[in-house]
Amino acid sequence: xxxxxxxxxxxxxxxxxxxxxxxxxxxxxxxxxxxxxxxxxxxxxxxxxxxxxxxxxxxxxxxxxxxxxxxxxxxxxxxxxxxxxxxxxxxxxxxxxxxxxxxxxxxxxxxxxxxxxxxxxxxxxxxxxx
Length: 130
Ligand SMILES: [Ca+2]
Ligand SMILES: [Ca+2]
Fold this sequence. Notes:
Layout: E1 3-9, E2 12-17, E3 21-22, E4 28-29, H1 31-34, E5 43-47, E6 50-54, E7 59-60, E8 66-67, E9 82-86, E10 89-93, E11 98-99, E12 105-106, E13 120-123, E14 126-129
Antiparallel strand pairs: 1-2, 3-4, 5-6, 7-8, 9-10, 11-12, 13-14
The site of one calcium ion has 10 residues, from strand 13 and strand 14.
């Protein structure tokens, strides 16, 4: 037993576990997660005699120590000229006419009244003057 103290209740009992153990029978080892070995915001989960890291977005590896190269999945849309991998993230460099983290959002250029005349039509990735 890894219990420091057990109290007998009616029909049951409650154990206070020693450091590093948890569970009603103090049979769950939390030692590995005690000093969270998961990096970059990863969450540590105990498993039987071991642990697993649930990594935050953008990270991978047994201890979330590995940056995911998101650029390999070509996340940038609409002709974004290039993707730069960052630690835990990535950046799309948009061509003009698009915005947003993956350059998927069309800019409504007509808001800034770019046409000499009264008539501007926003188009996907551009705009037209009439
Ligand atoms: Ca990355
Ligand atoms: Ca547009």
